[in-house]
Design a protein that fits this description.
heterodimer; A: about 110 residues; mainly beta; 7-stranded mixed sheet; 4-stranded antiparallel sheet; about 0% helix; B: about 110 residues; globular
Chain lengths: ~110, ~110
């Protein structure tokens, strides 16, 4: 069966510090991968998605970037965090070959102080 | 641009009630619609997926319907239980994009 991991689970970082959040998927190959942010009291905002290694599409201009160095690894990064980057970050995947159900990881709670 | 709205934003009901959560979307050219459950501080769990050619899906006490022409979906929860307390989100995928647009959710509390 497929599983999706995210780490760290929680993170407290000062403004201006760098960020690296990691997501890995097990039990499938060549999935579509997604990064979402969920701010307090708001819906899920799609930040990035990837259909393959090295292929990244950005949905919203911002202070963040994403990379996919391996088929089942998706990384969210920032060089300098802003207060507005605080939120709950969720990684998700879709198999993408006829199966369109989306599955989510457990999330990372980021607080920027 | 696709917009997804969920009403009500919050709902509190006594245990045992049947209830309906609503989801509306502005662009009817969707491929799929999913209903998710999110517990506080957790990721999302997929409950039901309705493909565009389908009108409804059922899983246990949950039934979701889809009316593409009117841009609406409803999630029906029968005989609600305190364990059903969570936020319920709907999401639509526009044709062929593999990208889901989410509503802001309905926060449900079932009182024992």
């Amino acid at each position: 069966s497929q599983t999706i991991h995210q780490w760290p689970a929680t993170l407290v970082q000062p403004v201006g510090s760098p960020l690296s959040l990691e997501c890995t998927v097990e039990g499938t190959s060549n999935p579509n991968l997604y990064w979402y942010r969920q701010a307090a009291g708001r819906g899920l905002q799609l930040l990035f998605y990837s259909v393959g290694i090295g292929q990244i599409s950005s949905e919203v201009p911002q202070n963040l970037s994403a990379s996919r160095p391996q088929d089942r690894q998706f990384i969210l990064s920032s060089k300098k965090l802003l207060l507005s980057d605080s939120g709950f970050y969720l990684c998700a995947w879709i198999l993408g070959t006829g199966e369109v159900r989306q599955f989510f990881g457990p999330g990372t709670r980021l607080t920027v102080l | 641009k696709q917009e997804v709205t969920q009403i009500p934003a919050a709902l509190s009901v006594p245990e045992g009630e049947n209830l309906v959560l609503n989801c509306s979307f502005t662009d009817s050219a969707i491929y799929n619609l999913q209903w998710f459950r999110q517990d506080p501080g957790k990721g999302l769990t997929s409950l039901l997926l309705i493909q565009s050619s389908q009108r409804e899906q059922t899983s246990g006490r949950l039934n979701a319907s889809l009316d593409k022409s009117s841009g609406r979906s409803t999630l029906y929860i029968a005989a609600s239980q305190p364990g059903d307390s969570a936020t319920y989100l709907c999401a639509v995928e526009n044709s062929g994009t593999y990208k889901y647009i989410f509503g802001t959710g309905t926060r449900l509390k079932v009182l024992a």
